[in-house]
Amino acid sequence: MNEYYRTVRRILIFILVLNIAVALAKVLYGYYSNSLSMLTDGFHSFFDGASNVVGIIGITLASRPADEEHKYGHWKIETFASIIIAVLLFLVCLEIVESSIDRFFNPSTPEITIISFLIMGITILINLGVSWYEYKKGKEIDSKILVADSMHTRSDIYASIAVIVGFFAISAGYVWVDTIIALGIALLIAKTGIDIIRESSEVLLDKSIISDEIIENIVKSVHGVNECHAIRTRGKVTQTYIDLHITVDPKCSIEEAHQIGEEVELKIKKSIPGIKEVLIHLEPDK
Question: CA geometry: angle at 134 spanning 132 and 137, to 5°?
Fold first, then answer.
């Protein structure tokens, strides 16, 4: 396992421990105080932990080297694990909606105390730190799983803030607000899941990640290249695959054309960080 995968796994394990602690605090006191919104937020935090487990498993599988059947490696498993996290979020939504409907037809008054506010306040501060750190590291090392997981945690922050607002409303006598906020949290979680799927699908569908114009300008700066076309890019920022066609003087020998191709590959890798492989098709100029 290389340093990239070790770093991602280490971060996910650390955040898993924090998420479990936060979830236990919310769920236990949510049951005790009969607060549906707090209990719902606690289950959301538990699924944060579940997504960490999915991420740890995904990143372990993704770190496996290329083999005869997977010659490009297994790195896309990391992106696939991000989609599993999104699916878990949708399952949370269904659970919340079901609980909210039940509470609507069987209303009860939650017990709101200073401890309720204290628990939610502390968990918000923890999640703020976790989300910021995870998103920052995810962007630094271009980890889809860390970015997806940070978005998951960010939705937990918004949900917790909504719960606190609900506490004030319940204290003022508006008990029905507890159910409304739980449904609002469900919508927020669903949006986060959709965002994760949209971003992850771009990698799985091999969306172009580098402008053709940028690559063409680099390639044409190499002496001996006449034209450049059929440029394709895929992968992610830190692991980009490029293939392209270049035309050279038909009078060039095989050795000369090969040398031009090597110079093009070297120039691209020096100019653009994160290039994993450059596949060049040489063609005689017409």
Answer: 105
